[in-house]
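Why run this: before we spend reagent on co-expression, it is cheaper to look at a predicted model of the complex and decide which construct boundaries make sense. The entries below are exactly what would go into the expression plan.
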Amino acid sequence: MSVPTTRAAVPVLAAEDLTVRFGRRTALANVTLSVPRGRVVSLIGPSGGGKTTLLRAFNRMNELVPGVATTGTVRFDGVDLHGDEVDPVEVRRRIGMVFQQATLFPRSIFENVAFGPRASGYTGDLQELAEELLAAVGLWSEVAEDLDRPAMQLSAGQQQRLCIARTLALRPEVLLLDEPTSALDPAATARIESLIHSLRQDYTIVLATHGRRQAARLSDLTAYLAGGELIEYGPTETLFTTPRDRRTESYLTGRIA
Amino acid sequence: MACGVAAAMVAAAFLTMAVVLVAKAWSAADLGFLFDPSSRVADRAGIGPALAGTLWLAALTVAFAFPVGVGTAVYLEEYLPPGGVAVVVSGAVANLAGVPSVVYGVAGLALFVRGMGMGPTLLAGGCTLAALALPTVIVTSRAAIRAVPRGLREAAYSLGATRWQVVRGQVLPAAAPGIVTGSCAAFIRTVGEAAPLLVLGAVSVMTFAPRSPADPLTSLPTQVFAWSTRSQQDFAAVAAGAGVALLLVLLVMNLVARVVRRRLQGVSA
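The model came back. Tokens follow.
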């Protein structure tokens, strides 16, 4: 095994010359980008620009879509994610994902949290785990009295926080958040943002977002993707104040939707 | 408005059928009719063996066709990659669903009664009816599985579930009400079939109620057919009585399906 100092130098996630096609449509073209450990990386850019596809390449979700073709390499801790001995199920247990729409299971709050740990053979106390995770996302005080309530009865913001808790239940190393606040009102958005802010202590986070200000508020690094290409990638502050590429500047100043 | 008229016509048609049947069956109606064996004399003819035969056939059909049908649907939807094989299998299943029931009888006669040496037994009948119901069970189950939102599957996969855990834990529970509704419609149609059982060699006069699948093949639909082809006027009432009994059996099957569906929905809601 590698020495800790060199391990820190290896990016947690790295896409190398990554191209993803769905049928004839190229969703991602020759993208090279690495995510340093312990940082928050934002992916910004217009809809259809490749943010979601890149995010889903990091935990091998793209391959669930029929007709997908991927070339290039994705590395997790230096290991090729598409290597022969890599099990996509194991990848998804270590790299958690939260979707744009809260996709809760039509079950109770407890069952939603318990699904992931059960699937991976968790042997501890699920009740305890649920309490800990619901507390971590600030939901415990709101739902503690009845964990057997149908999850669908929660508000949209609560549902999204439950989705995050459900993902944290796997004890992943990385969190992939796909526009987690785009369906939420400002108050619920603020809660999720402060949650992301507190999660950065323990997780490497990749956040696809529509909100330029959200990216500026939350992330250390920002990547601007458009038309499936990585236009610019760098420290958030630099990218927002002195973008090198005119296309990035146009997007940031609102001339491109 | 037009829909209201159409609905009224359907209701009227059903009521008319029920009234005609019951009126015809009235003279045959007594408790003995339900349990007595069939007879060459109309007065003494009962539907005991035929009723028992149909219950056996229903149980065998569901027991064979439901697991195989749902399993096939899951395999086709969740496991088999789209492409040549999937297209061929889907086409074959869709075509089988359109094959007339009497043809299933001919195939069942060759395969189960003679080929496998089952003889004209309830088991052979159950196998044939199961084969008849199978394509419809597969088609309706596939539709129910396909209707499960992709987001639900993706959420389960993203939580590190294996394919089977996704299917077992999320897809099947979400699809279950649709699977039960569709399959049950198929079973109800199938259990009311006379043609394939007549081809297999169903007996029309049976003096004892079947106690095992190895007993001779008898059923309500074939009994109705046998009695209705008799020249004696009295048998018309007996045939109508057996028809009413068959309707009641199917009605009960429908009710059971409703209860099961409601419970499944309660679980997943």
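Chain B touches chain A at residues 81-82, 149, 151-162, 165, 169-170, 174, 268-269 (CB under 8 Å). Chain B has one domain: 31-268. Bring this page to Monday's planning discussion.
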